[in-house]
Amino acid sequence: MVQVPGAARRAAAFRRMRDARSSEVAEDYVEMVGDLIAETGSARLTDLADCLGVAPATAAKALQRLQRDGLVETKPYRSITLTEAGETMAAASRERHRIVHEFLIALGVSGETAEADAEGIEHHVSPETLTLFEAMTKRLNKGG
Protein backbone atom coordinates (compact mmCIF):
# COMPACT_ATOMS: atom_id res chain seq x y z
CA MET A 1 0.00 0.00 0.00
CA VAL A 2 1.26 3.48 -0.92
CA GLN A 3 1.60 5.91 1.96
CA VAL A 4 0.51 9.44 1.11
CA PRO A 5 1.86 12.13 3.45
CA GLY A 6 -0.96 13.57 5.54
CA ALA A 7 -3.48 10.98 4.32
CA ALA A 8 -5.16 10.52 7.71
CA ARG A 9 -5.54 14.27 8.18
CA ARG A 10 -6.92 14.69 4.67
CA ALA A 11 -9.31 11.78 5.14
CA ALA A 12 -10.66 13.39 8.31
CA ALA A 13 -11.17 16.70 6.47
CA PHE A 14 -12.97 14.96 3.59
CA ARG A 15 -15.18 13.10 6.10
CA ARG A 16 -16.07 16.39 7.81
CA MET A 17 -17.02 17.93 4.45
CA ARG A 18 -19.20 14.93 3.54
CA ASP A 19 -20.95 15.20 6.91
CA ALA A 20 -21.49 18.94 6.38
CA ARG A 21 -22.96 18.34 2.92
CA SER A 22 -25.39 15.76 4.26
CA SER A 23 -26.72 18.17 6.89
CA GLU A 24 -26.73 21.23 4.58
CA VAL A 25 -30.10 20.45 2.99
CA ALA A 26 -31.73 19.74 6.35
CA GLU A 27 -30.39 23.00 7.77
CA ASP A 28 -31.63 25.01 4.78
CA TYR A 29 -35.09 23.47 4.98
CA VAL A 30 -35.60 23.89 8.73
CA GLU A 31 -34.26 27.44 8.58
CA MET A 32 -36.68 28.30 5.76
CA VAL A 33 -39.62 26.65 7.54
CA GLY A 34 -38.83 28.77 10.60
CA ASP A 35 -38.49 31.91 8.49
CA LEU A 36 -41.82 31.28 6.74
CA ILE A 37 -43.59 30.74 10.06
CA ALA A 38 -42.03 33.93 11.46
CA GLU A 39 -42.90 36.01 8.38
CA THR A 40 -46.32 34.66 7.38
CA GLY A 41 -47.55 32.64 10.35
CA SER A 42 -47.34 29.32 8.52
CA ALA A 43 -45.12 27.21 6.31
CA ARG A 44 -46.81 25.45 3.41
CA LEU A 45 -45.15 22.99 1.07
CA THR A 46 -45.66 25.16 -2.02
CA ASP A 47 -44.26 28.26 -0.31
CA LEU A 48 -41.27 26.29 0.95
CA ALA A 49 -40.56 24.90 -2.53
CA ASP A 50 -40.85 28.39 -4.07
CA CYS A 51 -38.49 29.94 -1.51
CA LEU A 52 -35.90 27.21 -2.00
CA GLY A 53 -36.26 27.16 -5.78
CA VAL A 54 -37.19 23.48 -5.97
CA ALA A 55 -40.17 21.52 -7.26
CA PRO A 56 -42.90 20.72 -4.72
CA ALA A 57 -42.13 17.01 -5.16
CA THR A 58 -38.49 17.67 -4.21
CA ALA A 59 -39.56 19.63 -1.13
CA ALA A 60 -42.04 16.89 -0.17
CA LYS A 61 -39.31 14.25 -0.34
CA ALA A 62 -36.98 16.38 1.80
CA LEU A 63 -39.77 16.99 4.32
CA GLN A 64 -40.35 13.25 4.63
CA ARG A 65 -36.69 12.82 5.56
CA LEU A 66 -36.86 15.74 8.01
CA GLN A 67 -39.96 14.26 9.62
CA ARG A 68 -38.27 10.86 9.88
CA ASP A 69 -35.29 12.62 11.51
CA GLY A 70 -37.58 14.34 14.03
CA LEU A 71 -37.01 17.90 12.78
CA VAL A 72 -40.45 18.78 11.39
CA GLU A 73 -44.04 17.68 11.77
CA THR A 74 -46.31 17.51 8.75
CA LYS A 75 -49.96 16.59 8.55
CA PRO A 76 -52.17 16.46 5.45
CA TYR A 77 -53.70 19.86 4.64
CA ARG A 78 -51.87 21.51 7.54
CA SER A 79 -48.92 23.84 7.89
CA ILE A 80 -45.43 22.42 8.45
CA THR A 81 -44.12 22.92 11.98
CA LEU A 82 -40.67 22.56 13.50
CA THR A 83 -40.03 20.22 16.39
CA GLU A 84 -37.84 21.37 19.25
CA ALA A 85 -34.86 19.72 17.52
CA GLY A 86 -35.80 21.51 14.28
CA GLU A 87 -36.02 24.86 16.09
CA THR A 88 -32.59 24.25 17.61
CA MET A 89 -31.08 23.36 14.23
CA ALA A 90 -32.66 26.40 12.55
CA ALA A 91 -31.42 28.77 15.26
CA ALA A 92 -27.87 27.37 15.07
CA SER A 93 -27.87 27.69 11.28
CA ARG A 94 -29.10 31.29 11.47
CA GLU A 95 -26.42 32.15 14.02
CA ARG A 96 -23.62 30.62 11.94
CA HIS A 97 -24.92 32.52 8.91
CA ARG A 98 -24.98 35.79 10.88
CA ILE A 99 -21.41 35.35 12.12
CA VAL A 100 -20.02 34.46 8.69
CA HIS A 101 -21.97 37.28 7.00
CA GLU A 102 -20.75 39.88 9.51
CA PHE A 103 -17.17 38.64 9.16
CA LEU A 104 -17.28 38.96 5.37
CA ILE A 105 -18.82 42.45 5.60
CA ALA A 106 -16.09 43.48 8.08
CA LEU A 107 -13.50 42.31 5.54
CA GLY A 108 -15.05 44.63 2.96
CA VAL A 109 -17.01 42.09 0.92
CA SER A 110 -20.11 43.65 -0.68
CA GLY A 111 -23.45 42.90 0.97
CA GLU A 112 -24.77 40.84 -1.93
CA THR A 113 -21.62 38.74 -2.22
CA ALA A 114 -21.35 38.33 1.56
CA GLU A 115 -24.93 37.05 1.67
CA ALA A 116 -24.32 34.50 -1.11
CA ASP A 117 -20.97 33.36 0.28
CA ALA A 118 -22.27 33.09 3.85
CA GLU A 119 -25.01 30.77 2.63
CA GLY A 120 -22.41 28.23 1.54
CA ILE A 121 -19.75 28.78 4.19
CA GLU A 122 -22.15 28.56 7.14
CA HIS A 123 -22.64 24.83 6.54
CA HIS A 124 -18.96 23.97 6.32
CA VAL A 125 -17.27 26.18 8.90
CA SER A 126 -15.88 24.50 12.02
CA PRO A 127 -16.79 25.76 15.49
CA GLU A 128 -13.16 26.81 15.99
CA THR A 129 -13.12 28.89 12.81
CA LEU A 130 -16.54 30.36 13.57
CA THR A 131 -15.32 31.50 16.99
CA LEU A 132 -12.32 33.15 15.37
CA PHE A 133 -14.52 34.78 12.70
CA GLU A 134 -16.62 36.33 15.45
CA ALA A 135 -13.60 37.53 17.44
CA MET A 136 -11.94 38.98 14.32
CA THR A 137 -15.17 40.73 13.32
CA LYS A 138 -15.26 42.45 16.70
CA ARG A 139 -11.64 43.57 16.25
CA LEU A 140 -12.19 44.77 12.71
CA ASN A 141 -15.28 46.72 13.72
CA LYS A 142 -13.37 48.40 16.57
CA GLY A 143 -10.70 49.45 14.08
CA GLY A 144 -7.84 47.43 15.40
UniProtKB/TrEMBL annotation:
It comes from the Bacteria. Its main location: cytoplasm. SMART domains: HTH_DTXR. InterPro entries: DtxR_MntR_Metal-Reg, Fe_dep_repressor, Fe_dep_repressor_sf, HTH_DTXR, Iron_dep_repressor, WH-like_DNA-bd_sf, WH_DNA-bd_sf. The keyword Heme does not apply. Keywords: Activator, Cytoplasm, DNA-binding, Manganese, Repressor, Transcription, Transcription regulation. In the presence of manganese, represses expression of mntH and mntS. Up-regulates expression of mntP. Homodimer. PANTHER family: IRON (METAL) DEPENDENT REPRESSOR, DTXR FAMILY, TRANSCRIPTIONAL REGULATOR MNTR. This is Transcriptional regulator MntR. It comes from Brevundimonas staleyi.
